[in-house]
Write a structure and sequence with these properties.
Blueprint lengths: L1 E6 L10 E3 L5 E3 L11 H8 L16 H7 L15 H8 L16 H13 L10 E8 L8 E4 L3 E5 L5 E6 L5 E6 L4 E4 L5 E3 L5 E6 L6 E4 L6 H6 L5 E3 L2 E3 L1 E2 L2 E6 L5 E8 H6 L9 H21 L10 E2 L10 H6 L1 H9 L3 E5 L2 E2 L4 E2 L40 E2 H9 L4 H8 L4 E4 L2
Parallel strand pairs: 1-8, 4-18, 21-22
Antiparallel strand pairs: 1-5, 2-3, 4-17, 5-12, 6-7, 6-11, 8-9, 9-10, 11-16, 12-15, 13-14, 16-17, 19-20, 19-23
Helix pairs in contact: 1-2, 7-9, 7-11
C-alpha cells in the first residue's frame, strides 16, 4: 500500500467522479478542490449546520451580506459549543492516556485534573504525558524527488483535511497504489488507473495511523550525506546501508508561506526525543543528560516558534537545528530510549523558564560566553580534557555543553544533573509536563 504525493504545475479540468474499486483502491477524476472556492462565509454556514437550501442560491461566492440573509431563517440552528474544558484540553495536549481520565467525561474539572496528576504520582511516574506535539520539517517536495512522496503504513491510515474530516481511509494490507499530486496550493490523489483527482483539502493534508500507533515508512526516500540534507532537503538520511525512513506519529503535507511544500512529522515531544540524535554506545548517565538536552531544545523552540517563522514546523531534522532520524534510532539505540523514558518530561530551566541548550562536539579547552545578555546561563567554563582539542574544527561553536567533555565527566562518576548544571550555569532541572 503506497501513497505518492507530488507537485503538478497546471490545473486539471473540472470533473468529479469517485469510484471505489475492488481491492480497496479508488479513482477520482481530475479537478481542483472545490473547497478552495469556498468563502469564509460559506464555511461558517456549513460549520453551523445551516440548511443549504437557505443559501445555495448565493453560490458560488457567498458574501457577508448573503451570510446574514441566510442566517435570518427561523430554521437556523447555531453549532453547539464544545463541552471540552481547558483541563481536558491540557490532558489531551500532554498526551495523557485517556483511559486514566475518561471516567470524568463529559466535563473534566480542575479538581479531576489534579486527581489524574496525583494518580500518576502514586504510580511512580514523573508524568503520564508524552508532552505537547512537536512538528519536525523532514524535507521539501521538489524536483529532486519529482515532487512526490511514497508512504505506507502496515496498520492503515486516514487522510484528513485541516478540519479533521476524513477524506479517505487506507486499510492495512490494502493493495491499491495511491499517489497524491498537488498543483499550486492543493493536493490530489492518483488511483490505480493512473488518473488524478482532487481532495477537498486546500493546502493541507494530515496522514494519521489507524489506532494512533502505526509507523509510517517513506519509500524511495534517501540522501547520501548530512551536507546534502542541510543544503537541499529532499529526502531522508542514509548512513551506509541504513536508511532512516520510518517515523512515529503523523505526517503533515502542507505549504509554507513561501509556497514550498514540506513533509512534516507530527508527534509528541517524548517520541520526538526518542528519535533524536545518534550518540553511539555510552553510559546511562550520558544518555539521560542528552535526552534532557534534546527535549529541552525541542521544547524551547516549540514554545518560541520563531526560528522557522513562515514555516509550518518548529525545527527541521538537520544539524542546523537538531538531528532527528525517527523510529530507527529507537531500534538501533534502545538504551537512549530507556534513558528518555526515565527522564520523561524533564527539561533544563533558568529562573523557571525553558532554557536554550546548545551543544557541541569539542572545545579548545573552554566553552564560550554566548554574546549578549539574553542567555546568562551560557557562560564560559573549563572543559573536561576528553572534550578538549587544539583545533575543534568547523561547526563547533563551543556554546553550552561539550559532548565529549560530558563523556569524560560521566566517566569520572558525575551524575547527569551535575554535568548539565556545570555546562549551563545557574539552571535547574524541572518537570515540564
Amino acid at each position: 500500500m503506497n501513497i505518492k504525493i507530488r507537485l503538478k504545475s497546471s490545473f486539471l479540468p473540472l470533473l468529479v467522479m469517485a469510484v471505489l474499486l475492488s481491492g480497496g483502491g479508488f479513482f477520482v477524476s481530475p479537478q481542483k478542490a472545490e473547497a478552495a472556492k469556498k468563502t469564509k462565509w460559506q464555511k461558517l454556514l456549513e460549520q453551523n449546520n445551516v440548511s443549504e437550501s437557505l443559501w445555495a442560491k448565493y453560490k458560488p461566492k457567498i458574501s457577508r451580506s448573503e451570510y446574514l440573509k441566510a442566517t435570518r431563517g427561523k430554521s437556523v440552528k447555531a453549532a453547539k459549543k464544545s463541552k471540552v474544558t481547558k483541563w481536558q484540553k491540557l490532558l489531551e495536549k500532554n498526551g495523557i492516556d485517556p483511559t486514566i481520565w475518561q471516567k470524568y467525561l463529559p466535563k473534566v474539572s480542575k479538581g479531576e485534573y489534579n486527581k489524574v496528576k496525583k494518580a500518576l504520582k502514586r504510580l511512580g511516574q514523573i508524568s503520564g504525558s508524552l508532552g505537547p506535539d512537536m512538528k519536525v520539517g523532514l524535507f521539501k517536495l521538489n524536483t529532486e524527488n519529482h515532487k512526490t512522496i511514497t508512504v505506507n503504513n502496515t496498520t492503515g491510515f486516514r487522510i484528513k483535511d485541516k478540519s479533521g474530516n476524513v477524506l479517505r481511509e487506507i486499510l492495512g494490507g490494502q493493495n491499491a497504489a495511491i499517489r497524491a499530486v498537488y498543483s499550486g496550493d492543493y493536493f490530489t490523489i492518483r488511483g490505480d488507473d493512473g488518473e488524478y483527482g482532487a481532495l477537498t483539502s486546500g493546502d493541507y493534508l494530515i496522514l494519521e495511523p489507524v489506532g494512533g500507533n502505526g509507523i509510517f515508512e517513506i519509500d524511495d526516500c534517501e540522501v547520501n550525506t548530512s551536507a546534502d540534507k542541510k543544503s537541499n532537503p529532499f529526502g531522508c538520511y542514509k548512513s551506509g546501508e541504513v536508511k532512516y525512513d520510518e517515523y512515529r506519529g503523523k505526517l503533515e503535507l502542507s505549504f509554507n508561506d513561501d509556497g514550498e511544500a514540506w513533509v512534516i512529522n507530527v508527534l509528541p515531544m517524548e517520541q520526538y526525543t526518542w528519535g533524536t540524535g545518534e550518540i553511539g554506545d555510552s553510559k546511562t548517565e550520558y544518555y539521560k543528560l542528552f535526552s534532557i538536552i534534546f527535549r529541552t531544545y525541542g521544547y524551547y523552540h516549540n514554545e518560541k516558534r520563531t526560528k522557522h517563522s513562515g514555516e509550518n514546523f518548529s525545527l527541521n531534522d538537520t544539524s542546523n537545528d537538531q538531528i532527528y532520524k525517527g523510529y530507527k534510532i529507537e531500534e538501533r539505540f534502545p538504551k537512549m530510549k530507556q534513558a528518555t523514558e526515565e527522564t520523561r518530561g524533564k527539561i533544563v530551566a533558568y529562573k523557571g523558564k525553558t532554557a536554550l541548550t546548545p551543544y557541541c562536539s569539542y572545545t579548545n579547552g573552554r566553552t564560550r560566553d554566548y554574546p549578549g545578555d539574553d542567555f546568562p546561563y551560557l557562560k564560559s567554563v573549563k572543559d573536561h580534557k576528553n572534550g578538549t582539542q587544539d583545533n575543534p574544527g568547523d561547526g563547533n561553536h563551543m556554546y553550552g555543553l561539550s559532548a565529549h567533555g560530558a563523556v569524560g565527566w560521566v566517566g569520572d562518576g558525575k551524575k547527569y544533573d551535575w554535568v548539565l548544571k556545570y555546562y549551563y550555569s545557574g539552571v535547574d532541572i524541572k518537570g515540564a509536563y
